[in-house]
Amino acid sequence: MAGIELRALHKRFGTTDVVRGIDLTVPSGAFLTLLGPSGCGKSTLLRMLAGLEAPSAGQILFDGSVVNDIPPGRRDIAMVFQSYALYPHMTVAQNIAYPLRKRGVPRGERDAAVARAAEVLQLTALLDRRPRELSGGQQQRVALGRALVREPRIFLLDEPLSNLDATLRSHMRRELVALHRRIGRTMVYVTHDQLEAMTMSTHVAVIDGGRLQQFGTPAEVYRRPANRMVASFIGTPGMAFADGMVATGRLLLAGRPLALIGAPDGPVTVGIRAEDVEIADTGVAACVTDMEAVGHETLLTLSGEFGTVTARAPADCRLAPGATVHWQVRPAQLHLFNPETGDRRNAALSPITSSNETTAP
């Protein structure tokens, strides 16, 4: 296993900065996901870890040793790409054994290593087949086996599940998590799919515009997003935002008191997640402008004086577009952000209980 440390890492292509001063420390044995929108720099960062791209500035360290000038073949890493790149004329066993054969590992040791990898990945019964005889999920496991058989200290995976259908992706997510638990090696996984990041990782690094926006566990990133970008990118449906104001110890939306707050007066952006919105008999009046049935529940889009929010409702919800409802949210579940920088603002929020402000949600 190996821990990874990035120090002020930069990558520039011509005049374009793709990775901008990333500092990051990844513990040994972690499953780290680099998460962000397309073009944010996450794949370039992975290629620098692999040694396929040289940093423009900064350092990459494995277990405390700088590896900037060490070529890919000597970094003791294995990389799995979006394309499986299996040799069509070779059997599964031959594909898995190929990196060992290139290194001159004796036949007996190769066979033993292939057998171990095949058992871990449930490929033992498929060792004599060729890639064309395999499903997409099976081909992906062969690509993983080819990496696993080398017993590297770090696995690098660049969107390896993106070519699979939804059912296979779900299956392979579980298999990758189980594999990580069994072998305990450091894994760095690149994706723009937040579901993959949140369900598979021990740690998530959210990247946007080449900069690290937040690093933490999936729960930390979801529950306490560091800024508005992270808050909007993490979560399905996305967080709703409204322009608020802090005045004389109260948080106001559309001029109405929402909560008591310990923060200086001034504008603030309020973030509200769908799971924290409750349809109630009293509260903020809103019109149902859209409904989306997603099987186990229905997502309601509510528009009113506080702007637009999304609420979760039971699958058998009998509301219809155009209906008027009321919603409430507990103050402790609100997220506050600086309207200029987008950074998170930490402030104590509590319900308003005075009789003259009972209209607050």
Question: What does the model show?
Answer:
The chain has helices at 42-50, 92-102, 107-120, 136-148, 166-183, 194-200, 218-223, 228-233, and strands at 4-13, 16-26, 31-35, 57-62, 65-66, 77-80, 154-158, 186-191, 203-208, 211-216, 240-247, 250-253, 256-261, 266-272, 278-280, 284-293, 297-304, 307-314, 324-328, 335-337, 344-345, 349-350. The protein has 361 residues and is of the alpha+beta class. The chain folds into 2 domains: 4-232, P-loop containing nucleotide triphosphate hydrolases (Rossmann fold), CATH 3.40.50; 237-357, Beta Barrel (OB fold (Dihydrolipoamide Acetyltransferase, E2P)), CATH 2.40.50. The strands form 4 sheets. Strands 21-20-14-11-12-13-22 form a 7-stranded antiparallel beta sheet. A 6-stranded mixed beta sheet has the order 6-7-8-3-9-10, with helices on both faces. A 5-stranded antiparallel beta sheet has the order 15-19-16-17-18, with no helix packed on it. A hairpin with a 2-residue loop joins strand 12 and strand 13. Helix 2 crosses helix 3 (107-120) and helix 2 packs parallel to helix 4 (136-148). The model has no long low-confidence stretch (mean pLDDT 91).
